[in-house]
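Materials and Methods. Structural model of Sulfhydryl oxidase. The 197-residue sequence of Sulfhydryl oxidase from Xylaria arbuscula was retrieved and submitted for structure prediction as follows.
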Amino acid sequence: MARHLTILITIVVAGFILLSLSSSSLGSISSISKPVADADLVKDSASEGDASFAALSGNILEGGSIAPKLENATIKAELGRASWKLFHTMMARFPEKPSEEDSLALKTYIKLFARLYPCGDCASHFQQLLKKFPPQIGSRNAAAGWACHVHNQVNERLKKPLFDCNNIGDFYDCGCGDEKKATGEAGAEQLELATKE
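The predicted structure was written out as tokens:
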């Protein structure tokens, strides 16, 4: 069930992003003013990529939650676990030195994630957190640290234990592995098969 919800969320958000970008005039993307240092995780000022958002309708990115309240506590918990897994894995796979387009894509995804999340109350709370702690999209470390910090804000509100953000990379390992390592492992498997034949 959680796997289906994760896939559904991903498809809906990806479709909405494509629809939004195809109907907007994103001819030029202005440059990101400066990279975000890990020490600057929590900021009150506007974060990078805001000028690029001017091309998108404010109602699309800043509108309220579109989902109603999710009453079923079991489904709500499953959805939360699956969504956090997807969210943290996405941050862990974000480039360490993202392009302007990469940063804009991540920021757009986060804003739409907050608006389209299937639990209306959860989405509204997440939107409030985004206003207080704007997404940090300057690097993989900044994005992953920011996501952990925001997740801990949710945990605190729900009276759940806080997560040690120093271990976020170990906890949310997608199993994707290093590309060079994966290639090496594939080569070893092919070698084993060749020697058996």
